[in-house]
Amino acid sequence: MSRSLEPLFGFVPRNVNAKDVEKALNGDINPFTKSPHSGQYKKILEGRKKLPVYSQMDEFLQTFQANQITVMVGETGSGKTTQIPQFVAYSDLPHTRGKMIACTQPRRVAAMSVAKRVADEMDVPLGKQVGYSIRFEDMTENGTTFLKYMTDGMLLREAMTDPELSRYSTVILDEAHERTLATDILMGLLKALAKKRSDLKLIVMSATLDAVKFQKYFGINGQKAAPLFKVPGRTFPVDVFYTQEPEPDYVEAAIRTVLMIHRAEDPGDILLFLTGEEEIEDACRKIRIEADDLVQQHPDAVGPLSCIPLYSSLPPAQQQRIFDAAPQPRTAGGPPGRKVVISTNIAETSLTIDGIVYVVDPGFSKQKVYNPRIRVESLLVSPISKASAQQRAGRAGRTRPGKCFRLYTEKDFMKELEEQTYPEILRSNLANTILELLKVGVKDLVKFDYVDAPAPETLMRALELLNFLAALDDDGNLTPLGAMMADFPLDPQLAKMLIVSPEFKCSNEILTIVAMLSVPNVFVRPPNLRKEADAAKAMMTVPGGDHLTMLNVYNEYMQNQGDRNWARNNFLNQRALTQADNVRAQLKRNMEKYDIDLVTNTDQRTFYENIRKALVCGFFMQVAHREGEKNMYLTVKDNQIVGLHPSCGLDTTPEWVLFNEFVLTSRPYIRTVTEVRPEWLLEYAPHYYDLTTASFPEGETKRALKSVLAKRKGKSVADTATDDKRGGKKRKTAK
DNA sequence: GAGCACTGC
């Protein structure tokens, strides 16, 4: 066989060196397609050769060959995400062995855009030899794709059907320092799997600060630590400045700093990090006013300043504004304009804005925290970590040397900030994760080798919930129902109610409700059109509960598909509705796979009642009981005082309500609320509502349920179930 | 009478 037509002739899997690889790269024939290279290939290759990681190809190949697990550190701009998987491809030669290389990313856009870039570099069409796989979109070809970029969640899903991950020769976990839930679980699974599958190689790619931790964690088979492969980055230096004294009001200090930069610093755009939508919009308004004042006072010295907000719920078209050029000087030769982007954490990892020279970092972000005692996840404004502060500062040095102004003292940075942001696994409700782990075949969840083990109470809460939902038996084993639930990309409560819904002849409707609950809020409320938006919402409100309203909104949306402006005219979020439709279709396919009937109850008298009963089957642990006269509820068992969220559409305050979420904002609220009947609680969740056990604390809710039970003993069950008089007091009385 | 940090299946 001629060497020129078989560029990989003589290559032995996992025994190649950089010299051979370079020869193949520089050749005229594409070794993976056997076709001549396209015109642009050589040009792209020249660019790749300038990446820091390229010059270390041989060192990498040696490390990769000699070790089953490698920890790799590559700073921003090193080229690791695009190049390392290609180096692995040349060493692994997965296409000759019917295998694939997986490279995981925490975000969908990253998986897509990196795959596109690498397909170009390898001179193959995207979706053939190089592809990507994300929810709702599989851009791979069976038997052809050997390099697959994918979201970490997607690989975790695959592990549930194939715990050996037998299709893969090498798995690369990229951005491991972000410590997403899925990446953390994958690290645990892959560590165990590596001991079982000696042919499987693993590369964990991360930022510097975490490397030693990962090295220690991945020391297996008698090794003390996994080897470290390090590549320098390619960024510009950033000067960091601290305040002399702590700032009592970080928003005010941030605004002041932005204006100071605008007045006194050389041209270059500014990035300011704040914590949320409201804070950002507020700061934008204030900066605009002050900047205008400044221009008025010093028209010859201060140029125009454009202020651009950035957060995830902003429509994509508005997010695009961050790429607009800074404003032109107002007069020819006048002082130059400048742009300031005011952003949440989204600009820390997900979005890169070129041309940023100044970063203003007040040192806070909203972070998820989980309180297992009351089973509540909430968002809290908290100090960021050192790693996060470094990441923020780095945003100033992507195109030229920059400056970062930290609105806290150097001493606070050194002494008060944590090294790393707490990994998500320590800040989340783990019910879903535990179900996934069990499905993958992990037996002992307490002894599972976590990189960071969650609090025992968090595990307890998750196991308890799954047991009450009958996903786990009393010995902690996955039940057939639990195995089915795990296959749905949903929280266990939602999966449970979807699976049981045919018993209430309402699976079509529950399917819709579950899909609507899986997407962001569909109701839009522009600040200047609140009245109109509220009126539009009132038109679609079903008085019996917010879940029923969601069903109604979806159905109306489907009936008005012909009208492109329908969503906007009715103050609904078109994107969210489309997404709900996508989710619904995916879940429907899942149901069909398990032969779960898709049925609708045609009896109008029990239509809504049956839906509410099905809701109880999943959410019986999220029920509250009205106490006293006012809008005051006590959650069952946990006895948390909560109020109906102002967005709630109920026209009365029913005695018993079921809620989708507990939110802790200005005060504790329950959101997305539907009226239920106490008889249903006793009937459909008898274990949870076992009034004889001590685990059910004494109190008003228990007394109320006891009296229901006493009454029920007098009557037949059938009688109580059809007794659908709507209790409750009128909610909206004269103010 | 309030909100949605950010992801992901």
UniProtKB/TrEMBL annotation:
Role, per record: Pre-mRNA processing factor involved in disassembly of spliceosomes after the release of mature mRNA.
Stated name of the protein: RNA helicase
Database matches in SMART domains: AAA, DEXDc, HA2, HELICc
Reaction equation(s) it catalyzes: ATP + H2O = ADP + phosphate + H(+)
InterPro entries documented for this protein: AAA+_ATPase (IPR003593), DEAD-box_helicase_OB_fold (IPR011709), DEAD/DEAH_box_helicase_dom (IPR011545), DHX15_DEXHc (IPR044756), DNA/RNA_helicase_DEAH_CS (IPR002464), HA2_WH (IPR048333), Helicase-assoc_dom (IPR007502), Helicase_ATP-bd (IPR014001)
Segments for region (Disordered): 713-735
GO cellular component: post-mRNA release spliceosomal complex
One of the GO biological process terms: spliceosomal complex disassembly
Enzyme class: hydrolase
Family classification: Belongs to the DEAD box helicase family. DEAH subfamily. DDX15/PRP43 sub-subfamily.
The keyword Phosphoprotein appears for this protein: no
Record GO terms (molecular function): ATP binding; hydrolase activity; RNA binding; RNA helicase activity
Positions of the Helicase C-terminal domain: 254-441
Pfam annotation, one family: WHD_HA2
Key words of the record: ATP-binding, Helicase, Hydrolase, mRNA processing, mRNA splicing, Nucleotide-binding
The protein's Enzyme Commission number: 3.6.4.13
Helicase ATP-binding domain boundaries: 61-227
